[in-house]
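PROTOCOL LOG
Step 1. Enter all chains and additional molecules of the complex.
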Amino acid sequence: AQTVTQSQPEMSVQEAETVTLSCTYDTSESDYYLFWYKQPPSRQMILVIRQEAYKQQNATENRFSVNFQKAAKSFSLKISDSQLGDAAMYFCAYNEGGSEKLVFGKGTKLTVNP
Amino acid sequence: NAGVTQTPKFRVLKTGQSMTLLCAQDMNHEYMYWYRQDPGMGLRLIHYSVGEGTTAKGEVPDGYNVSRLKKQNFLLGLESAAPSQTSVYFCASSYTGGSTEAFFGQGTRLTVV
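Step 2. Run joint prediction.
Step 3. Record the structure below.
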């Protein structure tokens, strides 16, 4: 079974600085998708960024970007110019292509210090 | 623009009681999911549905049942609640399955005493 590992239970960053959250996954498949979801204190999870494994180019959404290292099975999230509103739990998730299901990591709690 | 709506948002049950959690989505999505979130465990899939009238087991289905009689609704039932089912429950939906964006409800915090 595929597994997703987030090795940092908690991280902190100063406002306006950059932080990187780590995620590794285990799969023998070549067709898959990776996601980062944000869960703010309001609890409702929202998609931050999505990466298709067959694409070489790293996905970017405004201040959020990923470093996708397919051979190393690594999918880290970089948040630039951190803002107080970025404080949340961040979950890395994996989907095997053609599967209906997502596999989530255990999450990283990000604190943004003013 | 409601998206995914869960009711109720909070509930306290006594051991052995039953209840149903309702999830409704207005995006015409085929796929719907129920997850539970426990501290330090991330989200674990309970049951899911790939369309009206279909259901399937996820990672932790024991003690739960589901129904999808209408495309927009996905019900999660607890027939005889146990303290181990104390958790936050999330419903999600997506258009074409796990490879596309999942839209989540705000969660239901359930406590079983």
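Step 4. Note key features.
The mean pLDDT of chain A is 95.
Chain A touches chain B at residues 4, 9, 33, 35, 37, 42-47, 50, 91, 95-102, 104-107 (CB under 8 Å).
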